[in-house]
## 1
Amino acid sequence: MDSIISNLALGFSTALTFQNLALCFVGCLIGTLIGVLPGVGPIATIAMLLPITFGLDPTGALIMLAGIYYGAQYGGSTTAILVNIPGEATSVVTVLDGHEMAKQGRAGAALGIAAIGSFIAGTVSTLVIAALGLPLTKLAQLFGPAEYFSLMIMGLVFAMVLARGSLLRAFAMIVLGLVLSTIGTDLETGEERLTFGIERLSDGLEFVVLAMGVFGFAEIIRNLENPEARDVVRGSIGPLLPTREEFRQSAMPIARGTFLGALLGILPGNGAVLGPFASYSVEKKLAKDPRRFGRGAIEGVAGPEAANNAGAQTAFIPLLTLGIPPNAVMALMVGAMTIHGIIPGPQVMTKAPSLFWGMVASMWIGNLMLLIINLPMVGLWVRLLKVPYRLLFPAILLFCCIGIYSINSSETDVIFTAVFGLFGYALLKFGFEPAPLLLGFVLGKLMEEKLRQALILSRGSFMTFVERPVSLGLLVVAAVLIVVALLPAIRKSRDEVFTE
Amino acid sequence: MTESSDPARAAGPAAFIRSPLDAAAGLFLICLAAVVLHQIRGLDAGSLRSFGPAMLPRGLAVILGASGIALVLMSVFRRDGSVLERWSIRGPFFILGSVLAFAFTIRVFGLAVAGPLAMVVGAYADPDARLKETLIFSVVLTAVCVVLFRYVLGLSIPILKMP
Amino acid sequence: MKILAKLAFAAAALVAGSAAAQTYPAKPITMIVPFAAGGPTDVVARIVTEHMSRTLGQQIVIENVGGAGGTTGTTRASQAGNDGYTIMMGHMGTHGAAPALYPNLKYDPSKDFEPVGLAAGTPILIVAKKAFPAQDLKGFVDYLKANGDKVNQAHAGVGSVSHSTGILLTSQVGTKTTQVPYTGTGPALNDLVSGQVDFMTDQIVNVAEQIRAGTIRAYAIATPSRSPALPDVPTTKEAGLPQYEVSAWNAIFAPKGTPAEVVTKLNDALVKALADEGTRKRLLDLGAVLPEKNEQTSAWLGDFVAKEVARWTPVLKAAK
């Protein structure tokens, strides 16, 4: 305990220098900006900003880059809530109830609870990193390919629970998402699959391309169809902050979301993406009236947002304690550290304690700054929705196009987004929901990789998934979840039978 | 389940299909599955013990097609059918046109041309688009984007190119 | 008459060309790095171009165009304008192994580029999980021969450095292991540290810290001399596998037809960067190997690329 306090004291003394505070602030500001801009992700921006950090000392540079990373998570929720475009896999869930709230004139409450929930989650997970970083890493080492595969199976069950309507339709969308995830080069043989001979597809689809197409563009087309409903907010825009009642409703979801997000974020296989989905499923199952979900339930924003931020934060644990990056942004952080002459590895904590603890402390400071930056902005964002839709939607189109183009300087990606816009419109017309599709897509890539690795390692034996205790445990949880998810549907159809 | 509509309306030309929406959705899935199966026909599926590249896509496509068939069957048997909504042409045409216009001009002419072009084309997705207003707005917004993306964020986007 | 006109045109073009070359560079230069930002090639590119930009008086802007083992970005560079304002950081994979791995490759590493110069190589190490039952490289090789496909060998995906160098190792040892593919070095290393897989070959930047911390063990480094970054790791020559000598080299290329004056200017700037103490130190700290004076010329790189393609093609084709 003493060591935690002295470590944190060292951290804060590093992070609270004027230069580092300023860098943290700049990072958070840039992060919020790129998070809000659809398509422009932290990866492109951090890559571009790397040369600027050459002149800084490593600690300062990393504090700024980390600020960009979690700033982008905050900003991403804003876009998800306001214009229905999830910038990253983790904000897909925020779209569901967040944008619904915005349509009902409760954008302020949604944005407010997202910021506050994220802040609380950020605070808790900073403490988790400080106190339990090292032991948790050891726990994560128990996860081999078989365990990851079982975890992904559990994730797919969450996707079923996410569904608003028919389970069969949700199931079909998950499968379609999985199919889309197999596009690209085969892991083992290097053969191209489902690429239609297009070179750009050989690395698979970009998440943002798919998400922006099926959520963003399809939503614009649908909005234009019915002129009455198209201005996002009609009438009054409601209070800018959540009401006391809304706070009360959100308290427990935030706590549960933080826990789930922090736990999944530690896994070095980008488990953080599961956090918000898990949180949403849990809240929906615990709710007295699950039908409110997908129609503007504040718990559906508060919980996942907390999980999202907690996961974003604890995703630093594998990087800082093992030197192994769990996702693409963290891989970039490795590059940034390497350029500054600090090669991440298990010894960073002991060799460069002021860097390690300075970063941990700056995470909390950054979260505080983000709260201060974001809360006053809520008013501004909400007013943005008052812009007439005939001006708003071409502007969204432009920002999306630039954002997509900037990811890989590829115009082909922009074309794909258009194609998926049409595809998404068709899905809407056929009554399908895009959220399970996206989750299937996100999990699919990892799932196939882990499944095949596990089978190669077990020399083709499927028993590996039940012989390994952690894997078995996860599968049991998945099985229980699916029964819980199916029961109401079965009961309902029985009721229907009886009423006939 | 899907929102039920007036059953009377569901009785269309093919009266035995109670829910045209489900039928259409199911057919859509079957078509998608067929495309996937056709695309990967040349690939090796391997065996369950040792997966080939086609194993997962093929298995998934079969499940997808089966879901489609289930939806089609449901459309015949369910009582509360839903009708297929009208598809608009104008919205998809101009929105996608706008995005494609951007894609085809960005590397040739740069953002200064691609930006306003995309916005003006896109604006016509709305029947009451106003050319002058959109034009002015698009030029202003493109200028903002140039400053924002090129100078604040430092992304490498071509601004103005003369082919 | 026709010939005269042609000659005059050619002369005019030459004059115009050299005039442009004299003022080169008049605007920022784009360097395509065919991998994601933050990877070993990207890091080398950023460190080297920082100094080169100062010499040239114009910024070299890095554009990461990742995908398909680096071949997407390389294809784009090969099709870019040859005025010297688009150059690229090529790599052992894109300009050595790619022709064997990608049958539909849209460029020829030798014919479609003007070699500028070798920048830096990152040595390859043979690393294994902590509990691997072999004391040294000899024991490791014997174990591989004895156990063959019972051994799990990780690599970071088809076309990656760990994939090509791993195949080279097993083909030289004369055995076939079970290959476990990962999507990137991070996940592969993670499973090596936790002991899910047995061994892999990878670049020093990726594994050095893990070796120092003792979470994985290193059997040998595939360079002629030991690395100052890991002085305790023997070379493959010392440890008894002298033919296994390989490094993930990075070199600057310009599209075919880039004026010779421009290539010379770029090469001069590169040589200056490699002579600069600060730049050298930063590269050496990463464990990189810097080219000797005679290896820094454009001509040397041209020959080297041809030799690399000739070396990788049979090995990789045989493994397919």
## 2
Amino acid sequence: MAKGQYKSALSYQLSALLRYPGVTVVAIGLALLASLLQALPIIILGQAIDELALTNQLTPRFMMLVFTILGLAGGLFATIFAVGYAFAIMVLRWERDARQEFFEVVSENSMTFHDQVDSRMLLAVSMQDIRWIRFSLNPALRTIITTIGSFVITVVFLWIIDLTLGIIAVIGIPLYIYFAYRYAVTVEPVRRARSEQNERLTASSQEVFRGIEVVRAFGAEEYEYEKFGKVSKEYQRIQTREGRLTAFYRPTLIMTAVTGLSFLYGSNQVLLGVFSVGTLVQVLGLLVALDVAGWILPRFLLEIRGGYVNAQRIVNILNWKDPLKEPDKPRLTLNWAGDIVFENVNFSYANNNGKNSNYVLKNLNLRIPGGSRVALIGGPGGGKSTILKLLLRLYDPTEGRVLIDGIDLRNIHTRKVRKAVGLVEQDIFLFRMSIRDNIAFGNMVASDEEVIEAAKRAQAHEFISIMPDGYDAAIGERGMTLSGGQRQRLAIARTILHDPKILLLDDSVSAIDAQTEYFLRKALDEVMQDRTSITVTQRLRTLLESDLIVVVDKGELVAVGIHKELLETSEHYHRIFERLPGALQYANGVTDTGGGM
Amino acid sequence: MSRRRSRFIGQTEKRSRPIYVLLIKMLEYLGRFKRIIAVGAVLVLISTIFQAIDPLVLSWGIDLVLTPGSTITGVLILGGIYVGLRLASWILNSINTWILSGARAGFVQTIQQDLYNHLVRTDLSYLKSEQSGNVTARVTSDIDDLGTGVQMTIDVSSQVLLLVITFVIMWLTNPLIALTALAVTPAVVFIVVLFGTVGQRIMLASQHAYGEVSGQIAEDLSGIHVAKAFNREEETAAKMQQLNQEAYRHGFRFMIMMTLMQPLIRAMGIIGIAALLFVGGSLAIGTAPVLTLGEVFLGVILVQRFLWPLLALSWMATQFQASLASMDRTLDVLDVKPTIINSPNAVSLKETSDGISFENLSFSYVEGTNVLNNVTFKITPGETVAMVGHTGAGKTTVAALINRFYDPQEGGILIGDQDIKDVTLESLHDTTALIAQEPYLFDANVLENIRYGRQSATDQEIVELCKLIGAHEFIEVLSNGYDTIVTEGGKNLSAGQVQMIAIARTMLADPKILILDEATSRLDAYSESLVQAAQEKLFAGRTTVVIAHRLTTIANASRVFVFDHGELIEKGTHEELLRLGGKYKALYDTYYAHQSVEELSEEIAKIAQEELAMVSGK
């Protein structure tokens, strides 16, 4: 399904039915037939009672009428079931495909989207909202069709029986439906407000229990009671309001009036000898049967309105306009070993209103020679990771260009960029699959031998081999069962197999022991071979060994050069070493003697 | 929520308390709402009686007009009664709804707040053993269920009453009619049983399949950046397709079951009409009819009324069970009494109390396995002590004990000369502050997160403070500066920013004693030098205990404490301990030496390996 296909929330909500117009028409027809089959027994009941009143015995005609009713029961069963079946197939297929479509569209959206939108919200939309839309069609819409059908058929029968009754019904029943609708319209926003408030309640309590140590440590219990109290009192207020709106439900009065009037009129007609007693039974029977229907109507109207709001929310997400566009005429070939150039690059992350004047990168100009080993360091939020993300083309610069071998990255398809540029990120994300599949994530056709070879080069083979299932060992929820150092080595193996031309490394790992560190350094040396690499690093050793060190701070380039130069020229750079015992002397020593200590 | 997690007819949940205990407790908790709910219940019952007898009026009407010589007056009177009954029933019902919705919401809010307050105060040992999602469910959905339970109790009584009155009316009209009406009940029983057995299986399978889809979406969304970096969007979509198809298959079976129910009930209703017509007809004919035609009509109407309440009852019973289970869980929570509370004669921690002493302290989380063993030390006011040791050596426990998150089994902790068990928790927490290894930020904006340290701080003060520690410039570059909302615990911030904000928060609280579980430094070299600088400002002049992961921290500490298997085995300055050549030297080589610029040799890696093997071997 193509993106942006839905112009309105209504067409989205109804798309399950619009997809199968033939089935829908037949199902609606059958639903109306069901309403008729539902009303007919009452009509026959009236005839049977007349038969009794006239003959005062169980005549064959009476028996035939009884059996007709029995037959109608069978017909009714079959019809309602057929309608339910048709609706079930339509809405469930739709639900399946709508969820798939939503997932695909959202996954295709660039990171700008994912930065702005809470992933928990997306999950809730893809599961609940879509289910509620399904619910708004089946059973809600289906039931409403049958119910309205019953109303219409009642009006028609009453009209046939007697003009006056017909007029009473024609005035009363539309009024009834109108008020029921009014009710749904009034209650719907309150109900939505309640469910939103409930989400707030859940979120605020979840948050506090997650951070309970912080609450305790700052002695903020009272503050939190009060905060929660506010949220829960508001919830109480909305809940009360919603409950009270359902009191004094006016349509019931209209129904009472219609039934009462029909009773008086009908009885009088019997007294006058115009109606038979059976006719009176028919009139009362039909109207009393509407009682149950009338009770269902407002509830399901509410569901339909609710489903519409859900549809609006989804359509808004589906129609999101991605600022990152694929090139119309993409360049197919490129020398990825060429120089990387940032040319007057400005960048700001779009915030929720889509506009943002806070630049994360400001007028960045930088040339990285192809094939070099670059160390990238800088203050928190200084723009390091943004530089990496621009190179992966997860975003395009707000202004300026990123060039590789003289070609603007905007002219290259994201798929091509991400094939040539590899990333080992800071928070290593591993999927709930086997170790083998995680390593082969960037190259699914890799053979077992290739996977093992990559793991060996990444110093990961050893610890994988001693695991109970080796390469088939499943990684737990977000790969929790592995240590930081192990995860990083798996990520390196993954990247070795992916074999990018340009390697981006966010190598600020957690504190690890010397042995792990030793293996990691070997793995890094391995993966950096024969490619341009840019490393955000914590390792002082890496700084010493780099071909180029880039220091950014507050989005600006503050220093570029090799270790020796920077130690003398850059105050920022100097600061890194000054706190470490002996590091400054050591680092200086390198400058002075050009060798070890 | 009306569209809450679906439950099923006949589905039961395990409870640890008998029903009557739960009911009594529930009544107790109704507290000040008891009277108002009783009023509501009475209204509902009266309205139910009216509702049950209104068809009777209609049948009298039919009989009346069939009686020769009747006049319109009688009809008018009956019509008036009918409308009157309906009106009265409507008014009573509405008043009841009005009252009850307020009472129910109030009741829910009251318990909710109680439970919440209780949980916030509950011992960490309890909260840690539960997932935050579970704890939250206690406060939200369980309490909501409880509210539903109160409503249900009233609804169930009204439905039972409706059934009973309807049956009595039918019996009084004619026992045969009543018995005929009973003929439809097996169908309802059949449905309930079918849905309770086969239906439940199908439903569980379906829920499971949907759970798989949901889990996969959650994982794929949080790993979306990886999928993008490796061009894996298509494959992920293909996998999703499979799971979706599976969920569809199960969902379809479930929906077909549900689809069967409605026509079954409706058809039964129609069969009821036929049956009653036949039986009623037989009784209404002949020379001495036992039944009037009006009564035949009454029977037909009443048999319809019989079906839905029966079905509703079985559904309500399920809901009711769920409420009892909620009550049970709520009681479980409330029964856990916090042990860490102010002692009866607790005093405030004195202004002058500073410095920390552990005296022969032993502590275990689980009986029999001491995490700390006879630990004694004294930290003088203003001193910075770094604690080192392997994972599980007891460092984090020391930090938690100083904050009195737990009480030791033996020995005690003094701040100055006051035992922390004898001072109020409030004053203790005002004096001490803890920065956890992964600082937790709330989903509020940056300013509010910092203000958490001291609620009374002005915006101005906070900005000044951030400037002082060098955090200002990193907050300013955020998309909305200080107003930037921290999302999902900080996914929109860098690790360095999170640490800076946590440091600012603690600085604002300005504690005399600081306990820091150092972040396992996920920063680049430059950011780390800045965070270190901020930390030094934070430490200045305060008594500080820091669980150290960074070389810089141990090097700058006034003393280092070495923990091993719950015991404090070495104390001294960095240089002293290195010269000693004991455990500290081994730890230093394993964890800290390579953080410097020196080349890491295979030899050191070997030493580290041996050291680690020793720990895991024990």
